[in-house]
Design a protein that fits this description.
CATH class of the largest domain: Alpha Beta
Distance between the termini: 25 Å
Number of strands: 15
Bound molecules: D-serine
CATH architecture of the largest domain: 3-Layer(aba) Sandwich
CATH superfamily of the largest domain: Type I PLP-dependent aspartate aminotransferase-like (Major domain)
Strand order of the largest sheet: 4-10-9-8-7-5-6
CATH topology of the largest domain: Aspartate Aminotransferase, domain 2
Helix content: 40-55%
Largest sheet: 7 strands, mixed
């Protein structure tokens, strides 16, 4: 126990003293952490509320019903499955509900911002299904006419949208129109932008998609876990049996309880303020970097990409390691048209979901951009950079007080 406690203490210090810019990370509230660490972890509850394979489920039944109701109210949909342990498992269950084994999915080129479960050779997805891909255009944006042309040629069973490193608004209505024209299903993985959709700062996929999957821990700021939404009476039955018993066993009711709290928190006006500030901070950082002369993308959401190779002459991996050395955490990321491998990459993905939760404001975002620029350019020493990080983070709310 002491060994693990010591490591948790180390991680707490790392989180408190660092500037967390990994676009998929966030800090859950004290209530969410409390419930995730509760005695609900002791309970087996295979099945669904009212239809369990174990006795003693009266309390977890009620908890799971609340989580389902809150998810449906937050996103304005008819049905939710709150049991997926992760976004990958949510995607696996969604694919199974939408098509037979070997079915064809049209998704974004992985190096352009798709997720591993969107057809990577190293993921289950491409082993069980056939994937074909659409690219981004030369400006790094979706070209809906190109998606349409590929869809007409390939005749997929499913068109998948929703990405891991795409900094712009996705036009779900246009994708629905393409799905209708080619007579296929529409699936959206909204994991990255779920918080923006909850706060109505991004068009919702719910009125358009057959199935929407998500995680609950990114911009939505809940516990680590997955979620599946649909308006279809037929699909929810297939989704439920794909999650349990096909892919998963016992649901994590402590996490489901924390998801219920996350959905309730996301319906508060404070959450809308948080998302507004998150988007402003992201924009401020990308614009400041561009004004200083770096090659950063624009942003219409919670993240942007920084081309470190052409801006500073170093790979994404080198930039990630350099910034990590001063307590700024980012992740290396392919940029559209990248010539380097995913292990090296030509850039970084930068997001403000986590730091905004701690109280980062626009002037901090500007300082962070200047810090990244000056440090990667070699204008300031490691010692000065660390002092700036300390100065910025010392004003923010400590993780344990959130
Ligand atoms: N690993 C997540 C991300 O960083 O975007 C996606 O699941």
């Amino acid at each position: 126990m002491e060994e693990i406690e010591r490591l948790i203490e180390g991680e707490l210090l790392r989180q408190n003293n660092g500037i967390e810019l990994i676009a998929s990370e966030n800090y859950a509230s004290g209530n969410i952490r409390k419930v995730t660490g509760s005695i609900l972890t002791n309970k087996y509850a295979e099945g669904y509320p009212g239809r369990r394979y174990y006795g003693g489920c009266e309390f977890v039944d009620e908890i799971e019903r609340i989580a389902i109701r809150e998810a449906c109210e937050l996103f304005g949909c008819k049905y939710a499955n709150v049991q997926p342990h992760s976004g990958s498992q949510a995607n696996a269950a969604a694919y199974r509900a939408l098509m037979p084994n070997g079915g064809k999915v049209l998704s974004l080129v992985l190096n352009d911002g798709g997720h591993l479960t969107h057809g990577s050779p190293v993921s289950f997805s491409s082993n069980f299904y056939t994937f074909v891909h659409y690219p981004l255009d030369k400006n790094g944006r979706l070209d809906y006419e190109v998606i349409r042309e590929i869809a007409l040629k390939e005749k997929p069973d499913v068109i998948l949208s929703g990405y891991s490193a795409y900094p712009y608004i996705i036009d779900f209505k246009k994708i629905r129109e393409i799905c209708d024209e080619v007579n296929c299903k529409m699936m959206v993985d909204m994991a990255h932008i779920a918080g923006l959709i909850a706060a109505k700062k991004h068009i919702s996929p719910i009125p358009y998609a057959d199935i929407v999957t998500s995680t609950t821990h990114k911009t939505l700021r809940g516990p680590r876990g997955g979620l599946i939404l649909t308006n279809s009476d037929e699909l929810i039955k297939k989704i439920n049996s794909a999650v349990f018993p096909f892919y998963q066993g016992g649901p994590l009711e402590h996490v489901i309880a924390a998801k219920a709290i996350c959905f309730k928190e996301a319906r508060k006006p404070e959450f809308v303020n948080y998302v507004t500030s998150l988007m402003e901070n992201t924009k401020e950082c990308s614009e400041t970097l561009k004004n200083l002369g770096a090659l950063a993308t624009n942003t219409e959401n919670h993240l942007f990409l920084l081309n470190t190779l052409d801006s500073f002459g170093i790979t994404g991996l080198e930039a990630q390691k350099k910034l990590e050395g001063i307590g700024v955490t980012t992740n290396k990321n392919m940029i559209p048209g990248d010539k380097l491998s995913p292990k090296e990459t030509s850039g970084l993905r930068i997001g403000f979901a986590a730091v905004t939760t701690r109280g980062c404001n626009k002037s901090d975002a500007k300082r962070i951009a200047t810090l990244i620029y000056d440090y990667l350019k070699g204008n300031i020493s490691e010692e000065s950079a660390k002092k700036i990080v300390k100065d910025i983070t010392s004003k923010w709310t400590p993780i344990e007080k959130l």
